[in-house]
Amino acid sequence: ANNHVFMKSCTNGFYEQHHGHHDEQPVNAAAKQLIGDALRERVENIDHEYCDPGDEDTFYVADLGEVYRQHLRWKMNLPRVKPFYAVKCNPDTKLLQLLTALGTGFDCASKAEIEQVLSLGVDPSRIIYAQPCKTKSYLRYVANQGVRQMTFDNADELRKIARLFPKAELFLRILTDDSSSLCRLSLKFGASLDSTDELLALARELDLNVVGVSFHVGSGASDPAAFLKAVRDAHVVFQQAAAYGFNFKTLDVGGGFCSDDTFEGMAGVLRSALDDYFPAHSGINLIAEPGRYYASSAFTLACNVIARRTIEDMPALNDDVMSADSNGSASYMLYVNDGLYGNFSSIMFDHQNPVAKILHADGRTLYNTAAAEETSDRSGVEYSIWGPTCDGIDRITESIRFDTVLDVGDWLYFEDMGAYTKCSATNFNGFSNDHDVIYVCSEPGAKALMGL
Ligand code: PLP
């Protein structure tokens, strides 16, 4: 009955608009139940004394219903902006299939990503090759496949495109202020407004087809003002282009959107900037390249505790620690079968701070219970959590406390693990980087689209 209640814990406009209740509990109990059942079924069926090597490997549970809800949320907040999902964020095939059915486009960065999306039957016009510095052989490949939309930000790239794919539809990617984002991209990409005029002149001289502007305010952006400035700058470039006789048709506002409760504020600022500078009557198409927004919250990761080291009677380093640990209780180092070189690559590359919860301990599944959660004060048992490789940097959590005593064979879980995790995992030390994904679907609408 409450399939349409949202899983996120935000209490702002979106739920209120959707449900009309200010006091509605915004936790999707049905979705949690489905995810919990999938996690429990898997871990309770593993006999750690006799299982085959790898049977206790890390695995994901993905709720496609969450992706569907995120899409509705996008349409409600940015109805004029068509999302082109950034495949790099998480190229999970079922996720891509659902987005295909939902009618999104795709932002691809390489031949492999373009191939994967085309293999799903997606029309080449739904793809943007959003990589300003492209491999020559990939350019020949996209020319053959009819993938025409692509970005550029420098003169050398324009000359390369003129030789290999002169009929491409080009987006001039401009520089943004990405200083408030988690992952800065403008150090590497984007033409400054000082250079756009010259680039447009060169494109004209080379008889190239520039059709619009793109930008990216940085992945994991937190300052909505960055969108306002970027839209304003894009408008300036649209005017410059008109002076060169280009008839720009599309603005691509990139990615950067988080899936947490900052989205509505960010989208609100962007929406009004677009309404001011690119109003509906201007006839300009608006597209975006969200990645994290769609993928992050849909994936939960479960890891097995493979080893434990007891740190007896931690010696006091100073008076503070002395008083905090004056009960002299042991703390533990937990070693789990996934880490920074695996799906927690997001700690290194994406500046994330995944928070462990207890999935299964002491013969009981604790998913989504108070006992699964970190204790808020300094009570409970202290743990540090480490990955399985030989490297000392392979640490997931420096310090966390639970009321429960954890031991080898127990399971932890981490929510919001869908973005920039599996895709950048290595198999360093011979550990797998291709873990199972168990799919559940908490939305009937998504089930119907997926034929489930
Ligand atoms: N578009 C481009 C060109 C990118 O480089 C990225 C991320 O690096 C994205 C889109 C997706 O960004 P996000 O996941 O922050 O939405």
TrEMBL record:
It is found in: Cytoplasm. PROSITE patterns: ODR_DC_2_1. GO terms for cellular component: cytoplasm. InterPro entries: Ala_racemase/Decarboxylase_C (IPR009006), De-COase2_C (IPR022643), De-COase2_N (IPR022644), De-COase2_pyr-phos_BS (IPR022653), Orn/DAP/Arg_de-COase (IPR000183), Orn_de-COase (IPR002433), PLP-binding_barrel (IPR029066). Pathway: Amine and polyamine biosynthesis; putrescine biosynthesis via L-ornithine pathway; putrescine from L-ornithine: step 1/1. Residues 60-418 form the Orn/DAP/Arg decarboxylase 2 C-terminal domain. It is an enzyme of class 4 (lyase). Pfam families: Orn_Arg_deC_N, Orn_DAP_Arg_deC. The modification N6-(pyridoxal phosphate)lysine is found at K88. Its EC number is 4.1.1.17. Its cofactor is pyridoxal 5'-phosphate. GO terms for biological process: putrescine biosynthetic process from arginine, via ornithine. Keywords: Cytoplasm, Decarboxylase, Lyase, Polyamine biosynthesis, Pyridoxal phosphate. Belongs to the Orn/Lys/Arg decarboxylase class-II family. Homodimer. Only the dimer is catalytically active, as the active sites are constructed of residues from both monomers. Catalyzes the first and rate-limiting step of polyamine biosynthesis that converts ornithine into putrescine, which is the precursor for the polyamines, spermidine and spermine. Polyamines are essential for cell proliferation and are implicated in cellular processes, ranging from DNA replication to apoptosis. This is Ornithine decarboxylase.
